[in-house]
Write a structure and sequence with these properties.
heterodimer, A: alpha/beta, 7-stranded mixed sheet, 5-stranded antiparallel sheet, B: alpha/beta, two-stranded antiparallel sheet, globular
Chain lengths: ~280, ~450
């Protein structure tokens, strides 16, 4: 009986000590900007993220992660760790997802991961690895996703790796030099809108109607600035801006819109009515 | 994460009253209320404002009569048996990442009701107002409630502007009764050619390009003062300003060195990646969405069209007139390139697995092409899609009938789509949330589709 009690005490003590030890490690990880999150749906297991606030993490800081042990997800993206630091990951027997992308990790670091057989996801994009790393990973039988974009991993290396682990999806990404930007086609002005001078024979409509979206380029050929007004759907003028002498203004509008040009004292000079096509609207001298 | 009330309720439900309580059912009830294992850690909502035609996107009907099937042809995708419209050829290559749903339907043929329904998962009751605190929270607000970001990072971001119909702002994009704290932050996309049409900024939009030089941001107080000045011009009186306190604090945090500020600076991105998305506000918004997710923002919404329908004249999906040229020349090319770039980019960075991408829209378009060469509103059946975040790609859920008029199989509602999103994000779709007066609401009335 006494013996049982003793064992019980030792077990409880050990458990408590384990937790206290965990707490020290957690505090230290947090001090380095790491987030320690309970892994959803898993008891006493951790998801540790350094990629947001802990980018200054160096190799030494990884010792805390090793002390915590029960880590299922670890994100070291954009941190300052190197190959040397990965020795601390050797004992993470429950690790399923590991982010090492955009770090200075290389092949000699990856050699530390050969025993992490619980790994399902490994992100190595933007690291210094080569095909040699794939050889180190060939025994990770639970691996399903491997990311090697922007590394020196070759197609031949991937083909060899896939022979050992056919179930792994290896994502090599695209070659950025093959991206062709969309050629911009500026719609060409095909016609000029008719200038309807104030007081002339042809009157503009009293108000704008709505239609398809188009552009109009106003060009001021006067030697004085002009004020540009849109006549709204209720027939009221709304100031859009001033076009200096010789200047142009590219204006988005709709077909069936009425635009009024006025002098600096708001005295109307004339009007344009937009059509369906992109057009020039030349304000005459 | 989940409320105590919720676990107790589940507990009672699963044990059929106290009489039937045994230890195993007790343990089971406990397990139900725990956060679920999930793949998705972040969510990007792509909203095609105005109502995207299902015929000219994910559900072409080549066998239908010519007045229904329209001018475009179907093309093969990377998945045998799945066809898309010919004008989304890049996206067709990503079909293995996409779960297409071709059987969503509802009964609300107005933009205001349809946006509300698709953004909140609930039917509007009575008059809904854009900033109403009686509204149901948007899907983005709910996600941000369950996925809390680190300090200084917004829980939800939407861009590049709010949705308007002829000058009237739509309800459903805000947090409603969840409270201002969960309103997604409206952010201006800092680059890209804008969609043609009217885009309004009646809400204060966060523009981290404000003329604030780093050395001038000496302390938080000065920064807030500067923000006051630059925003005050747009917002007007100071009382309106008080309400923005949460927003100001957030803005200040971001300007003072949160990873979000860096993410916002698209100039820091590789030019070739920017080209891949396209020099368009649609493409650059999705690029920004990826960068914000990388910076720890749990959910980002991008509206892919001009912000105001303004009678359907501009570059939006409300194609009552000139449907075919507008789809072919203005809308589908931007959508195709930008969304394909996002999927490529997320995939090669290893982010697609952890990021759920959801395509939402108001409704589909009518089978018959009208006298103006357009298609009108059709909530009877329409398509949407999921990618990433643990969703199985290369599949179609449900079907519309041969003419694309109504669901022929797997009929589902916007609420079911929301339940699917919640499941992928590890959120119990039967969870309860409480409004500011502590009244409980069941977040979703739908059932998850079997695609996650």
């Amino acid at each position: 009986m006494l013996r049982l009690l003793l064992i019980g005490t030792v077990l409880t003590l050990g458990h408590a000590l384990g937790h206290a030890d965990d707490q020290v490690a957690i505090d230290s990880i947090k001090k380095n900007g790491g987030l320690v999150l309970p892994s959803p749906g898993r008891e006493n297991q951790w998801d540790i993220q350094f990629q947001l606030r802990g980018r200054d993490l160096t190799d030494d800081g990884l010792a805390d992660v090793a002390r915590l042990g029960n880590v299922v997800e670890l994100n070291l993206r954009d941190t300052k760790i190197t190959s040397a630091g990965l020795v601390h990951l050797k004992g993470l027997a429950k690790l399923t997802r590991l982010h090492l992308e955009r770090t200075n990790v290389g092949d000699e670091g990856i050699a530390n991961l050969t025993k992490l057989t619980t790994l399902e996801y490994l992100n190595l994009y933007g690291t210094k690895i080569t095909d040699k790393s794939l050889d180190h990973l060939a025994g990770l039988k639970n691996l399903r996703q491997l990311y090697v974009w922007q590394t020196d991993v070759t197609d031949a290396g991937i083909a060899k790796f896939k022979k050992a682990l056919p179930a792994v999806s290896v994502v090599k990404g695209i070659d950025l030099s093959t991206i062709i930007p969309v050629a911009k086609e500026e719609p060409k002005p095909e016609n000029d809108l008719k200038w309807l001078p104030e007081g002339g024979d042809e009157k503009p409509p009293a108000k704008s109607v709505t239609g398809e979206f188009i552009f109009v380029r106003f060009i001021n050929e006067r030697d004085k600035p002009v004020k540009l007004f849109w006549i709204d759907y209720g027939g009221k003028p709304k100031l859009y801006g001033v076009i200096e002498p010789g200047d142009q203004r590219r204006q988005s509008t709709y077909e069936g819109a009425v635009w009024m040009l006025a002098d600096e004292r708001d005295k109307p000079l004339g009007y344009f009515v937009t059509g369906r096509e992109f057009a020039r609207a030349i304000i005459p001298k | 994460m989940l409320s105590l009330q919720h676990s107790r309720r589940d507990f009672l439900r699963s044990s059929v009253g106290l009489a039937g309580l045994t230890l195993p059912t007790f343990l089971k009830a406990q397990a139900v209320s725990k956060p679920r294992r999930r793949k998705a850690k972040a969510c990007i909502v792509i909203y095609t404002w105005g109502g995207m035609s299902h015929y000219e996107s994910f559900d072409p009907k080549p066998e239908a009569p010519v007045d229904i099937r329209g001018e475009f042809k179907p093309i093969k995708t990377a998945t045998p048996g799945i066809q898309f419209c010919e004008h989304i050829p890049l996206l067709a290559k990503h079909s293995n990442k996409l779960a297409i749903v071709r059987s969503v339907h509802h009964n609300n043929g107005a933009h205001s009701g349809a946006v509300y329904l698709n953004m909140t998962g609930h039917h509007p009751e009575g008059q809904i107002k854009a900033k109403g605190r009686k509204n149901w929270p948007s899907i983005t607000s709910v996600i941000s409630h369950f996925h809390r970001p680190i300090a200084g990072v917004p829980g939800a971001v939407r861009m590049p502007y709010s949705m308007y119909d002829n000058g009237r702002q739509m309800a459903g994009e805000g947090a409603g009764w969840l409270g201002a704290k969960y309103d997604p932050i409206l952010m201006r996309t800092p680059a890209g050619e804008p969609y043609g049409g009217v885009s309004r900024y009646d809400d204060p939009a966060l523009n981290l390009k404000l003329n604030l030089e780093k050395k001038r941001i000496s302390d938080r107080l000065t920064l807030l003062e500067q923000l006051d000045q630059s925003l005050g011009q747009k917002v007007g009186d100071s009382t309106a300003y008080e309400k923005l306190d949460h927003y100001r604090q957030m803005a200040a945090d971001m300007l003072l060195g949160s990873p979000v500020r860096e993410a916002y600076d698209l100039e820091l991105e590789d030019q070739r990646i920017r080209d891949m998305y396209g020099d368009h506000i649609g493409g650059q918004s999705l690029l920004l969405a990826r960068r914000l997710v990388e910076a720890g923002v749990p959910v980002v919404q991008a509206v892919c069209s001009a912000g105001d329908l303004a009678g359907g004249g501009g570059d939006n999906w409300d194609t009552h007139r000139n449907h075919f040229p507008k789809m072919k020349n203005r809308l589908l090319p931007v959508f195709d390139r930008a969304v394909s770039a996002l999927l490529t980019d997320l995939e090669m960075r290893g982010m697609l697995d952890e990021t759920l991408v959801v395509f939402l829209t108001d409704f589909g378009r009518t089978p018959k092409v009208n006298g103006n060469g357009g298609r009108d509103h059709h909530p009877g059946v329409y398509s949407m899609a999921f990618a990433g975040g643990g969703v199985h790609g290369g599949q179609v859920y449900g079907a519309s009938d041969t003419k694309g008029i109504e669901p022929a199989a797997g009929a589902c509602s916007p609420a079911d789509i929301h339940a699917t999103v919640y499941k992928a994000m590890g959120i119990d779709h039967n969870a309860e949330l409480h409004d500011q007066l502590d009244r409980p609401y069941l977040i979703c009335e739908g059932q998850p589709l079997p695609i996650v």
